[in-house]
Amino acid sequence: MKKIGIMLFVLGLVVFGLTGCGIVEYLSNPRDGAGTEKKLPEIVLNEPFLVTTVNGDYSLTITGARTTSERNENSESDPEQVVFLDFTYENISYEKRNNMDFFLAQGDFVVTDDAGNVLETYNIKDPNRMIQETPIGGSCSASIAYGLEKSSKNLNVIFIRGKGREVAQIRIPIE
Question: Which UniProt keywords are given for this protein, alphabetically ordered (predicted)?
């Protein structure tokens, strides 16, 4: 009985080893049910992108990406380029959840540079574009700063919701 258990364990390791690369490829290139690669809807710069959920609707408008010379003197990182991702969101009918009105924040975006590096947020704020809760009918213009190790001409943004569910994407030239 012990030998059968060991053989099954080894067989499982062999199967996992042979299919491991396929799993990584599958996870990094999501596919639809027919086995073809999923193409995310495109967000168009300066045009509202409508999102419909069971909790209500809202729109996201990506308005640009701009460099700043501002640096955080207390930061451990020393980025070559700091870029603000500018966006606006409008709460059309999204109901309060956990006693909070609707808002979008840094966790709703995965941002990469031209080289494909996933960017970390950088701790500076634009005081005129702060993320705020918005009640139904309200809107907010906001910015999130990202530090880039190497300069880039574009930001690639994937908008996500919930537990990492990719919703849409956009490539934005950095001004």
Answer: Signal
